[in-house]
Prior knowledge:
Low-confidence stretches: 1-15
Strand order of the largest sheet: 5-9-8-7-6-10-11
Structural class: alpha+beta
Radius of gyration: 16 Å
Shape: globular
Number of strands: 11
Helix content: 25-40%
Mean pLDDT: 86
Distance between the termini: 40 Å
Largest sheet: 7 strands, mixed, barrel
Amino acid sequence: MPFQTKTTTKSAPSITSNTTRLPISLVIDENHPAYQWAKKQSDSVNAFGHIGTHIDCYTKVPQHSHYTTDTIMLDCTLSMPGIGDIEKLDIAGKSLVLFTANLANNSYGTPQYGKADTALDSDVLDAILAKHPAFIFIDSYGIGAHGDEHISFDKRCEDNDCFVIENVVLNQQTASKLIQLDIQFDVTGASTGKRCEVTAIMSNMEQK
């Protein structure tokens, strides 16, 4: 049986009855293999920043430590998007949310989680960045393949003032009702991966 991760699943109605707020950050406890891996690294401070829900900041950091953005969600459960899926999107200044169901279907840090193909094609990433989103969220390990591509894709985003936030906790219901994301992190943290507290703001209105 795989190790379980601590996630907050209790949602709370907001001040207005039309929305619900739900924490969707993935918290890793000290018994999880990812925690133990980070603890053993020579640069453990940097390693700890890259487990659980975090924002990658290799070359620059966002100007602020707290953002609330509108969202556009793409269902990527069957395949990652193509250029045609991006062309119709209005994502300038918003968070593009790529819902892959990798975390929902495979426990974080398992071989199955790491083997899931959730990488964007390079030209698709270019199409996304041309539309100037503020953030790209994904419920997986990243938007590029493990290794050099992972880091290079994140750096390309940063060059366009867009930042990637990985390993968020999403399911079909949350993703389908998502309208905004509340994002908080410490921009002064020493690691190139900075722990994020992310709250989903979901509509309570029935979809028509």
